[in-house]
Amino acid sequence: MQITTLGTSHGDHTYCRFNSSTLFETGGRSYLVDSGEPVNGLMIRAGKPFAALRAVFVTHMHEDHVGGLPDLIKALVKYPTAGQRTEVYLPEAAAISALDQWLTAMHVAWPSPVVQVHVGKEGLVFDDGTLRVAAVPTGHMRAWQVPSFGYVLEAEGKRVVATGDLRGDFSDFPAAARETPSDLCLCEVTHYDPAKAVPVLMACPIRRMVFTHVHNPWHGADGEACLREILAPLPYPFAIAHDGDVFEV
Question: Any idea where the domains of the chain sit in the sequence?
Answer without folding.
Answer: 2-248
